[in-house]
Amino acid sequence: EDQVTQSPEALRLQEGESSSLNCSYTVSGLRGLFWYRQDPGKGPEFLFTLYSAGEEKEKERLKATLTKKESFLHITAPKPEDSATYLCAVQFIQGGSEKLVFGKGTKLTVNP
Amino acid sequence: NAGVMQNPRHLVRRRGQEARLRCSPMKGHSHVYWYRQLPEEGLKFMVYLQKENIIDESGMPKERFSAEFPKEGPSILRIQQVVRGDSAAYFCASSLSSYSNQPQHFGDGTRLSIL
Question: Which residues of B touch A107 (CB under 8 A)?
Answer without folding.
Answer: none
